[in-house]
Amino acid sequence: MPVILVANPKGGVGKSTLATNIAGMLAWAGHKVMLGDVDKQQSSRRWLALRPPHLPQIQGWDFDGHDTVKPPKGVSHVVMDTPAGLDGKKLKTLYKLADKIIIPLQPSLFDIQASFDFLGRLHEQFRQPEQTKHRPELALVGMRAKEGTLSVDQLQHFLPQLNAPFLGFLRDTQNYVQLAARGLTLWDVAPGRVERDLQQWQPLVAWLERRHA
């Protein structure tokens, strides 16, 4: 059962946007999806409460991140939305659950620095003796990107230092805001309305669908 962790210790980088749309994509692919919300703000859980019942079901999961537990039976895929400031025991617990860790970041100096430090902590987990047989795949996704801006150019210049695959940018658009307000994802509306966004998601979808070795 793949467990996908969406994580970055910095707040406001788009974790819930990424987590809910990943859950929606997987649900439309026919998987039994559970969306766990470890964030105290409960953004993903509130989003689930808005989701229309006729759409592919996404099950919620009340999980506080303090104890390593297996997801309930009958679920094929788990997506975990995590809080700002993720560190310490909670990070270790979620790390043990995860098969894939996606790190969203915005093209700003503060996001780059926070993500660089966070990746360092994840690589420290790699080196722990008890983790030698469990190493989640890591990847980065640029959020709210505006093409042709200096900030995007700076992030692209810095990416090689982050030591993780980069899956591309998701543009800064009101599509995500308007859909989230109705409990929807890109996959819940006519493709023509969000064609450009779906194209940007193709590398991320391919990475998610690739089986973890």
From TrEMBL:
Residues 4-185 form the CobQ/CobB/MinD/ParA nucleotide binding domain. Gene3D superfamilies: P-loop containing nucleotide triphosphate hydrolases. SUPFAM superfamilies: P-loop containing nucleoside triphosphate hydrolases. It comes from the Bacteria. PANTHER family: COBQ_COBB_MIND_PARA NUCLEOTIDE BINDING DOMAIN-CONTAINING PROTEIN, P-LOOP CONTAINING NUCLEOSIDE TRIPHOSPHATE HYDROLASE. This is Chromosome partitioning protein.
